[in-house]
Fold this sequence. Notes:
Helix content: 55-70%
Structural class: alpha/beta
CATH architecture of the domain at 39-263: 3-Layer(aba) Sandwich
Number of helices: 25
Number of strands: 11
Strand order of the largest sheet: 1-7-8-6-2-5-3-4
Shape: globular
Distance between the termini: 20 Å
Radius of gyration: 24 Å
Oligomer: single chain
Amino acid sequence: MSSQTLTQLRQLQQTLYDKAYTEAHAIVSGTSATILAYSAKFEQSLPKRCVRTNQTELLAAIRQHRFILYGDFHTLRQSQRGLLRLLRTYVERQRTRKVVLALEMFKAVDQDLIDGYLAGRLSDEVFLGSVNYSAEWGFPWQNFKMILDFARARRLQVVGINTDNAGRDTLRKRDQFAAKCLVSLAETYPDHKIICLIGEYHLADAHLPKSLAAEQKRQGIKGPMLRILNNIDRYYFALNKVEATTLTEYLRLRKDFYCVVNSPPWMKWQSFSLWEETRHISALPASAQEYELNQELDLYSEDAFDVDYQFLSFVKNLAGFMSLSIDASDMESFQLQYSPGGDFLRGLTSDGLTSEAEAKRLVGRASIDGVYFVGKTKSVLLTYISINNLAEAAGQYLHMLLTGFQDVTDAPVEDFYRRVLKSAVGMIASKILNPSRQCMELHHFRQNLMRHKRLGDSPLDSKAQLATAVLRFDLWMGSKLHDETVKMPSPQARVLQLDQDLDYAVSRAIGQMLGYSLYKKVVAHKVPSPRIRRLFKKKIAHSDVLWREISALYRLMAGR
């Protein structure tokens, strides 16, 4: 990527950050003086210097410390995903189950319910209702569920460390209570690692670390503590002055203090604003929701908390970054539908353009992936609001506006490749807006398959089936890249033998890899940056053009 393009990318990130930060802090400005004071002490306690390191060093530091305090930004999925990646890598490399997860999200008095849920005796619905999750915690359940799913699969102990009154107690009281819980766990599990997930503000020097040290001294329990933060604004921009931050970065702040950067900081503030919007809307009774959607929110400006507005701003930012000219009125012709339960059927079939069977398939994919862009109706189906989902759909929408591209024809084989291209475009768009976004690549699928076989899981496991199909497709595609014919070949009949859901999953996975690869090669100066702009402008007139485009992207990824 040229120095000019890199500069433009940094400027885009700064613009997004300024906007998201301002909107989020307009919300918190009216919060309690205690929380603001906690925030200020947290900022003051942050080390001024940071040094790049790697995951290996951080894992070594985890091995050397008894208590691991991970500072969480509750609305940002990448924050929880960062802990999950560290946890998974540590457990697998150490080949150990001697880990206790101490979670702020649950109260200590709910331990029997936590144990019942992990043992499979309680469904998600019953468990969440029993612990009063919505009122006592309320942050996106799916973000934290993936940690619990991992703990269940690896039979790790999970313990709640919040007070009986949770958020109604003072932060100081909650720190002191959490410290007592952590020390008690160290006594109960003397040979286990104690890993604590707690809000980042609790990790200021004078907060939980001070309370934990005092409790250790009082109880005579030894053991060093390690703090790990994630996505701290000042460190991200310090790194970005030197070079573009595109993947997970590991930073050493002190010998017992680290930071993981796996997301641009604007995304965490944006995630907070989006959570605030959906939280207020979902808390309304059904009869009031429809009214509220058409009114200005009482507390906050409509622009700041309108998901349609956020989606449109992403489209405009993408168009501006790539210098793509498009009429403003055309940009606003989309329909954005949000339903966590995937209640889209009536809307999809009401105009007669989509059959009920096709609509059910689209709803199914939206439920699995969190988002689906329907080109022929310019509709965005959202079951999970995240920055990456909005960015992906924004890129696909912009691509459709510029080229008239549709992913559905009367030819199933062509549709497979059209979905590949659509997914590639979506991944590139989300990488532009979030350079830290990760993507499954071929080596990840190989690793997953090896892990799957090592653990002896069922060959019918969906992840194993997807990995097998993607790797088979790659072998088949490698043979076809030598073929100069323009005729579009079909991989389905003899190579993949997929059902409809897996067929879609493979095309999405392949497309995301191609988009991810193109972006990386542009950043590494191996491909001129106009190649991305050309992808967004090229019209696919017929199947031969589509096949040549897919082949060219695959050759780039394969280095041919």
